[in-house]
Amino acid sequence: MFFAKPGEYEPCGMFTWGHALLLSITILCIIIALHFSKKCNHEQVKKIIKISTIVLWIVEIIKIIFNLSVGLVKEPNHYVPLYYCSIILYAGILSSFCKGTLKKIGDVFIAVGALVGGSFFLSCPNTSIAMYPLWHFLSIQSFFFHGTMVYLGILVHITDYVDLKLSDINYYASIIFVMLIISYFANKALDTNFMFISKNFPGTPVDVIYQLTGKAFTAVMCFLHMTLPFALVYPLRRLAVRYYERKRA
Prior knowledge:
Elements lengths: L16 H21 L4 H28 L17 H11 L2 H24 L13 H22 L10 H22 L14 H9 L3 H32 L1
Helix pairs in contact: 1-5, 2-3, 2-5, 3-4, 4-5, 4-6, 4-8, 6-8
């Protein structure tokens, strides 16, 4: 079952007891990890990001090999890492191994995109447990992957590793823009739907946007990708900062 091919077992399904179990385990692991790392200094946080990035790349490569081995070669959507949550793989490299502007881009994505993208997937995991049973590798891998995103996103905030400012939307938008450009042309060439900007995705919030926007769907999706996550995280960050400042006063 752990490496079963698609269709061999009944999928776990979203919003089931299996989903609740995986979500509960993931949240518990995030809480435990934050408990032991909340007092880390910036150098230690950077090391955690570096190790996490390497581990995420390893599990992503295993996922790619699995999907190719079960005959999904002609379906790049299943194995090419060109989705919103895939950006953590590249942002982690920028944050861990680069300096200056490139490092800043990686740091800001972790503070914004990793937190929002990871949280959304955990609540609506429409690409893993919707296809595979509870204890399948890809089900567990997806929750580990996105749980790590949420953990890193929270960690950089509570340790002040990233002091998010309004102007940082430029750093966030820049990495999203590059991903969108690559995805757009890949979708045209391969008839794929990377970043969910070229086709509808029924059964998800993308479907609502698709129905409302019509021909403007791609433009609207790109705009939302580049702005909405930052618009969600930034005010929450400012509220949290003000709360703790008043608490210390």
